[in-house]
Write a structure and sequence with these properties.
This protein is α/β, with parallel strands linked by helices. The chain contains 14 helices and five strands. The chain has two domains: about 50-170, abc type-2 transporter like domain (abc type-2 transporter like fold, 3-Layer(aba) Sandwich); about 180-375, no CATH class. α7 runs antiparallel to α11, α10 (about 260-285) runs antiparallel to α13 (about 330-340) and α10 packs parallel to α14.
């Protein structure tokens, strides 16, 4: 019995060693999971990108902004003129929160009636939950310091009310409805998953069965072959995307705030980027098992680093840069912007431009690698 068992073990080990690329992937996945889960997943949200509209520009307003920055929960990334400019920065994704300080803030502090407006991007669940509570907490702590300073200066009674309060407003999702967070993210994830996995599997299946060589001896060109392989998958991905959007709107009551046709056009570009990534995986894979492992790894890393589950600004810079290799990182902002916020193409141009460039580059690399592999 031991001999027979050992013979099977030897056979399996030899098969593994004959396919070193698959063995490397199997050994690499746990290491990659540990690194990603250890560094990229961070539920303790801090360093929230914040813009400030300081309309008072006095010592009291400067002290309030400094208290926000010193807390390390909010990073001041810019100063704008008014509330409308704060909302534009949040729409464009350059900030996740904004503070509007009204004129005459110092005088209002002295009277004990100062109030600042805090705006939070309600399309991202962790930022909404963390920012909503942290804004009020930091304002109370700063107000307590101001009150104690006034007591020390003037000997005022300690039962005075806090001189500064914060009025917090959650944009786009004031009720913090979970489905309004989920539907834009699910649409982006669905399109990436289907466009990558379907294309990679289709090409590898032909190579593994030996039929790709038969196709190539026909008058069809390699580019025409790839086009014929990708268009059916493109149609399936778009139909599923429309199904998810329709269910979100009509079944779960999630409003589609922006332009549907703009979203459709950008979704097509996004799907082409996923098709290119799937084609590249198929070129690098030797067989279907290896392709499935690479697809799983790419999808897992893309979900974590692309901002699907956790905000990218809370990740280390190296992992944020690595996340730029996945189209989900760009389209998830587009999906949230159009579905949840109702913004047009203007505020989304940085992500649209990046997605266009990514699509062209990945398709070029994939097609070139595919031709080299055939040669």
């Amino acid at each position: 019995m031991r001999r027979r068992t050992w013979a099977v073990i030897e056979k399996e080990l030899m098969q593994m060693l004959r396919d070193p690329s698959t063995l490397v992937i199997l050994l690499l996945i746990p290491v990659l999971q540990l690194v990603l889960f250890g560094f990229a997943i961070n539920t303790n949200i801090d360093h929230i990108p914040t813009v400030v509209a300081d309309q008072s520009l006095d010592a009291a307003s400067h002290a309030y902004v400094e208290a926000l920055a010193n807390s390390t929960y909010f990073d001041i990334v810019g100063y704008v003129s008014d509330e409308a400019a704060v909302i534009r920065a949040i729409d464009a994704g350059t900030a996740q929160a904004g503070v509007v300080i009204p004129p005459g803030f110092a005088a209002q502090v002295e009277r004990g009636s100062a109030q600042a407006l805090f705006l939070i991007d309600g399309s991202e669940v962790f930022t909404t939950q963390a920012g909503y509570s942290l804004a009020s907490l930091i304002a109370q702590m700063h107000a307590s310091d101001v009150l104690l300073e006034k007591v020390a200066r003037f000997g005022l009674p300690v039962n005075l009310g806090l001189p500064i309060s914060t009025r917090t407003r959650v944009l786009y999702n004031p009720d913090q409805d979970q489905m309004r967070f989920s539907i834009p993210n699910m649409v982006a994830l669905l399109l990436q998953t289907q466009s990558i996995s379907l294309t990679a599997a289709a090409v590898v299946r032909e190579r593994e069965s030996g039929t790709i060589e038969q196709l190539l001896v026909t008058p069809i060109r390699p580019f025409e072959l790839l086009l014929g392989k990708t268009i059916p998958n493109l149609v399936i991905a778009m139909i599923n995307m429309l199904t998810v959007v329709a269910l979100g709107v009509y079944l779960f009551g999630v409003p589609f705030q922006g332009s549907f046709w703009l979203f459709m056009g950008l979704s097509l570009i996004y799907v082409f980027s996923g098709l290119g990534l799937g084609l590249l995986i198929s070129t690098l894979s030797q067989n279907m098992k290896q392709a499935q492992q690479m697809i799983m790894m790419v999808l897992m890393v893309g979900v974590i680093l692309g901002g699907f589950m956790f905000p990218r600004y809370s990740m280390p810079p190296v992992l944020r840069a690595l996340g730029n290799l996945f189209p989900l990182s760009y389209f998830i902002h587009i999906s949230r912007g159009i579905i949840a916020k109702g913004v047009g193409a203007g505020p989304l141009w940085p992500n649209i431009g990046a997605l266009l460039g990514y699509s062209v580059a990945i398709l070029f690399v994939a097609v070139k690698s595919f031709r080299q592999r055939l040669d």
